[in-house]
Each structure stands twice: as structure tokens, then as C-alpha cells.
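MODEL INPUT / OUTPUT PAIR
PAIR INDEX: 1
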Amino acid sequence: MKIIINLVIIFTIIIVPTSGSIAPEFWNATYSAGNFTEDSPYNASLFSAFSDLVSMAASKTFANVTVGLSESSRVYALFSCQHDLPLHVCQSCVENATSDILGLFYPNPKEAIIIYEECMLRYANRMIFSTMELEPYDNDCNIIKYYSHTTEIKTAVKQGFETLIDQATNSTDYFAVGGVKNVVMDYDLYFLVQCTPDITKEECNTCLLHALNSTVASCGSDGRLSGHTMGPSCIMRYDYNPFFYSEVISLADMGPPTTTSPPLKYDKHDRSKDTLGLIFSIFIIIVLVILIFAIKNRVCCR
């Protein structure tokens, strides 16, 4: 019986903390400029900046900070979360970013950017605030292609994003979400666009149009049901699964759905729940087996 109690304690320690949160999905990271050593003033400035950004993420989805007295030790750093994220999710993503980014490169670069599904963090030894930059950017598409429906998908992606670009650039927070229903079979598409709030309306429009060209060319024109382009100044994403927290009042209609069988839908949150359920089931089986053997041994001893 003591063995079973110990197993329960170990299971609780391992499983319970991880079931409450899901690590952000890493998308890309890149670096440029020179390097710094761990005992340098720049390193101290960088860790101070990271600490400030994590604290700021508790109350806002975008923030920047400057740390360092001399030009050589000065760090300009910022983060940008998906605008409609709950703040605790944003802060968790930023905290992961500050922990991960320096471990990805060797030697330590003086300028780098790390991109996750829900946030972006970057730092540099030069002014990067209030400056629209198109590169580096991450562009990726769903692996499933619909060769027979490329026209419908391309049209839906282009029109969906064009509508949102107009909405976002004319809003105070440079953010918009929307959707189109009946694009392919019974699938709807969901769209999100966002710019960092420190650039101008015109720069936001330029950035999103650049992202649109990249997304349509690499994903929409290839018959993909999901894709994204995410860079330092703006993000653009679409998917057949809802992925944002804002409510879409209504979806534009592309007409009656086609009848071809759809692929299996995938959701990372559902997968994590299934994994935890499987682990828990295996644990219960192991406990039962141990319990049965313990009872048999006790009977034999009598």
C-alpha cells in the first residue's frame, strides 16, 4: 500500500503542474549583428530588459523598454502578443521567449527575434521602436493541399485579408479578425491581422500588404487551409480552426460547400487533453495491477 501512495504522490507532482498550462508553439527565430559575452554590461542590460518585459506583460499585450547607460551596453527590447490574448497567456508566452531566445544561438547575438504562435519578442543594440520592418519574417503553411480547390481558397484568403487590412489600419489598435464560411466542403476560414501599435497607419498598411502577398503566394495559391506570415511589425494568419479569442459576429459566405470528404481537423489543445487522458489511464492501470499483486501476496502469506 505504501508503494501505491508513493506512486500517487509522484503522479501528482509530475502531471498536475503541466495540465494547467500549455507551452507556446515555437515558430521561428533568427539573429543578426555582433556578439556579446556573458560577463559583459550588455548581458546585464539584456537580462534587466527581459525582466521588465515579463512584468509589463502582466498588464498589456505590447511593450518596449530601453536599458543601458552607454551606447555599447544599451538594449532596446520589445514584445508583442496577439492583441486579444488573455494577459496571463501573453505573460506566459513572453516569459518563455525570454527563457528560450538566448539558448537558440551561439555565441550570444546582440540582435535577435523569436516568434511563437501567440507572441513575438525581439531585442537589439540599435533603435527598433516606432520603425516598420518587413524582415525577418516567418512564413508557413498547412501541409495539406487541396489541388482541386486552389481558386476558391486563394479567393477567400485574398478577399478575407483585404477586408481585415482595411479594418485594422482604420482602428486604434491595428487589429482585426474575421472569417469566411463554406470555402471548401464544410470548412470555414478564420482570419487575423495585427500591427505593432508603435508604427503609423500607413506603415501598418504597407506591412500587411507585404504579408498578404507572401501569404497568398505561398499558402492561398497552393490550396492550403491554413497559413501565416509573422514579422517584426505585423502578423497575418488564417486557419480552418478558430484560433483567436475575439468573437466574430458573422462570417462572409462563399456559397454552398463542395461535397469532397474533408481532412481530419487538428487542434493542439485537444491533443494535449487527449495526451493527459492517456497518461492518467495508464497510471490507473499500473496502480490496479500493483494493488492486485499486493492483495495476492498478502493472501499467500496467510
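PAIR INDEX: 2
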Amino acid sequence: MQVCYNIQVRRLFEPPPVQRTVEALKTRTNKNNSNSKADWLWFVAPRKEVITLYKQGDTVSHAYHGIGTVKAIGEKEFLGETNEFATLYFPHEELRLSILKKDIDEHVRDIITEAEAHEIIEYLSSYDEKLAKNWKRRNHNNKERLTSGDPREICIVAKGLMELKYRRKKPLSNSDRRQLQRALRLLAEELGRVLDEEAEIMEEKLREACLDSLAA
């Protein structure tokens, strides 16, 4: 399946409305003499806004489609104009996606580092995450987090819904269940690639990490 589009999306890894900087973290830490649950989110520094020169074979992460590979970079005619496009392939969806080369940074980012992958696992196993109790608000917030492309935000969905599933006496709603599955899949794909683990094995490890703090 081949998809070709050029849309504007939020730059990945841009700081959210609340300022998340090392200076802010130091101020909060010194003031409170301890790290709050949210402080971990500031340990992963936002990526710098630079134009990345991806090449064929590079691994990237897309906000909607997850982990993919740059398959080719070349010229294509689209809407009567000839432009340079990058062709990406996403194995989970068996999807080929063409993006204007000049706009590639608006759609994809580098995958996280090994250090960041270990920080994600540590966060999932160390902290509880409270989501909105109101279903409509929770559903809306989680949709935005899952399409942000930011693993920090996806962690909030995974841990929050795992906690909700663990503590409530009835199953998750269909929407919550699908969002939990998507959050775990996106994290497992990326962490599995970085830490050289199969996605299925990594997803099970992430589930166990989420339950560690809940069962304590």
C-alpha cells in the first residue's frame, strides 16, 4: 500500500506548553528536595530543531505509524510538480509512505537512544500515573498523547491505563483497551529496536514494568 501526502503536524519532541527544561527540573528538585512523578519526563531532553539529512536505510519513528525505515530518496511527480520525496516503509502496517524530503522533519524523528530506553523502563516500573477520571476527557487526552510521537507522552498512556486496569473491578472500555494496546505496541517497537529485543518480548517486559509499582 502506497500513501503520499504532505500535511503539517506538531514538531516531534517539542516541549509541551509547560516548560520542560533542565533548569526547570533543577529548580523544582531543589525546591522540593525530591523528584515528583512528572520530573522524570524532563530527563529526556527535547530534540533540537534542525533539518535532518536522512539517508536510505535509516530507522525513524513516525507519530502515527511507529518505527519505519527510509527505503529510498528520489524525485516524484505529485500534483503536477516534481519534488524530492523520501519513501518510508512501516513493517507493522506493511505501509509505504512518501513524504516531501524538505518536510521530513515535520513527520519523523530519530529513534530514542539506549539510555532513554532504559529511562522509560525505569519510569514505568517506578511511578504511578493518574489519568483523568472522566472518560471523555481521558479519551481525548490519550488520543493527543498517542499521536504526539513523543515516547514520554505515550508512557503516560501506557502506565495510566495499566494502573486503571489493575485497580478497577471491571474490564477497560473498548476505547481504553485499544489505546493501551497501541501505547504498548509503539513503545515496544521502538524500545525493542533500540535494545535488540523482539517487539513481543519487549511488550511483555513493559507490561511487567508497569505492574511493578502497582503490586508493591
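PAIR 2 NOTE: The helical segments are 22-32, 114-126, 135-146, 151-167, 174-195, 199-215.
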